[in-house]
Design goal:
Length: 331
């Protein structure tokens, strides 16, 4: 299985490559990618440098153009596709059918993967994208139980890539409405969740309050570690109790599923976190490189190193991990 790692900057890309990533995925500094955060992402010049650095060390670069095109600005998405081809990206990660169609016609030899943002969860959906746009691989949404992934892997026309580690969101990929409800912007349309321009921190004595577009999202005691204010992971008062009413901060960790994923024929495991620091990317990539190498050496006796799991727990959101939907046996 390929190890696909995130990069929100050139230092993060170098950290991932140096730590053993088979592939690093990145995006432009605009709304064409679903992680359009201030201070992150790449100019065309930096992408060219990134591709050269990765290729010189045997790694590939995938370019995410995975938001849905603005009806008034389709040219921007088409230009992004053309730039990816010109800059030497190895693969496009796409979601919008119009952008997929353009890429397939204009650059038929440049591989196309279906983004998780397309939220394709059935054999029929994968077949549609394969027949019409020639996708080679699909990134599965994090809403499927492991038995559903197994069934899909046994009957799919394309390679499958699954998320292995990183922060979770309660919304089905490609269907994020909460950020849009509060700020008017969402990852699917503007490439940003809880945009920083709408975030405000407010100190009141020993209490730190976080607001998103003036909506109170959370309040932290002095000893608490404050999380970034996203609506889905805020704490709210319901039935007289203040708690994570929608979802507690947590990270996906599929280490224990690796032998099963490999047996299914999953082509790649993906690390979430283009908004994370180079140090985070390096640490997580190193642990997962060791996990995959250990699995290849001894698939029957695979046993994760405790030290690596401690590192992943320490770097997890809320310092806790979960198998998420993979463990939902009732699905």
């Amino acid at each position: 299985m390929d190890l696909v790692c995130p990069a929100g900057s050139l230092p993060a890309l170098k950290a991932a490559v140096n730590a053993g990533a088979d592939v690093v995925y990145l995006g432009l500094k605009d709304a064409t990618n679903a992680r359009h955060f201030a201070g992150l992402n790449f100019t065309p010049k930096r992408i060219r440098e990134a591709v050269a650095y990765a290729h010189a060390r045997g790694s590939k670069v995938y370019m995410a153009i995975n938001t849905y095109a603005d009806p008034a600005g389709v040219a921007r998405w088409r230009n992004a596709v053309d730039q990816a081809a010109d800059l030497g990206a190895d693969t496009l990660i796409l979601a919008d059918t119009g952008v997929l169609d353009y890429a397939a016609r204009k650059h038929p030899d440049l591989p196309r993967h279906l983004s998780v943002q397309a939220s394709a969860t059935t054999r029929q959906a994968l077949d549609f994208y394969h027949r019409h746009f020639g996708i080679r691989r699909a990134v599965l949404p994090r809403v499927l139980a492991v038995q559903q992934v197994r069934a899909l892997a046994a009957d799919t026309p394309v390679e499958l890539e699954v998320f292995a580690f990183g922060s979770l969101c309660i919304m089905a990929e490609g269907r994020c409405q909460l950020s849009s409800h509060v700020t008017g912007q969402s990852p699917n349309m503007a490439g940003v969740c809880s945009p920083a321009a709408h975030v405000r921190w407010q100190e009141e004595g020993d209490i730190l309050k976080s607001r998103l577009n003036e909506k109170l999202i959370d309040r932290f005691e002095k000893q608490e570690r404050a999380g970034y204010p996203t609506l889905c992971k805020g704490r709210f008062l319901t039935n007289g109790q203040r708690h994570h009413a929608l979802e507690a901060p947590t990270s996906l960790n599929t280490t224990e599923l690796l032998p099963e994923l490999k047996a299914m024929g999953i082509a790649a495991v993906k690390i979430e976190g283009r908004q994370r620091s180079p140090a985070y990317v390096q640490a997580v990539t190193r642990v997962w490189r060791e996990l995959l190498d250990s699995l290849d050496r001894n698939p029957e006796g695979f046993k994760p190193a405790p030290e690596g799991q401690k590192t992943l727990s320490r770097l997890s959101e809320g310092s806790q991990t979960t198998l998420g939907a993979y463990a939902r046996t009732w699905q």
